[in-house]
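Reading a protein record of the kind used here takes only a little practice. To see the layout at work, look at the sequence and tokens printed below.
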Amino acid sequence: MHAMEWSVTTAPSRLAGPVPLQQHPRYAAACTALGRSVLWLRLGPQDAPLAHALILSRHWPGLGRAALVSRGPVWSPELTPAARSGALHALVRGLRRTHAAVIATPDRVHGVDPLDQCGLLDLVTPMTVAQLELSGDAAAQRARLHGKWRNRLVRAEAADVCVDITQMPPDPDHWLLREEAAQARTRRYRRLPPAFAAAWAAQGPGAAALLVAHQRRVPVAGMLFLRHGNAASYHVGWTGRRGRTLCAHNLLMWRAMDYLAETGTTRLDLDLIDTQTAPSLARFKLGTGAVAVTLGTTRISAPGTALVARIAARLPPPAPEPAARAGGGPVTR
């Protein structure tokens, strides 16, 4: 096999540095537990891989098999941006041989979308995620909090609120998942099913961290974090009326940052930020000191899309979305 070819492989036993949740073996295991088809591909030789990619494969009625490459591949640091772009193009072409459609959302490489000028059809404009580096001691981390966010934290710390940190049980009917599901229905946002969190938690001690804020033994807020290697991802959060008054989510996030850093996490991914539909949530996430990271455009390769892409390339680009302002508002997701 040529050194720069993709081949089917098993889940990598070791990944260098923090990797996105969607490219970690625990994500593959959780999806498999829910009946999804997954595929691991490796670039280069087995003893010295240059990249790994986790592919989700599903059947689309009327179209056939579709492959989803979300925030991948995970590259070896030695691979140049040009080589990464070429390898990703080759990955999409290779997947089209066995799938009717391929949808890819890559991370940018040094600020450049590796699928730019590739002839694929733009499907979704670039999304933005919040990433928080958990570096330095608690004092340094606290100094990076934005002023209003820190003020709300101080208010929560002065209140009669207790925080428990435990391992999330593998129970899809857990009270936090039920509360968050009801919240999602009320606020009409999409979410992964509770069974996904349960499947993640079932992968062993330390896989999922549950933080609950209590006042007089009554839960007023909760947060769930999924751990993947030396990174972690905020998964779900819920707060009641009393929790919002007490700024309980500021306290939970702060305790999570401290706990995760102490137990080996170097980066906390706070998921998407959307200043149009959830400005308060975006301000809350950025108020932690997280930075806004723009992903690559979501693109699709399917029958007929190349022609549409050539036509779309002649149209003017859409206006950029306004940047989110940092702050300390309560979580509204």
Summary: Confidence is low (pLDDT under 50) at residues 321-333.
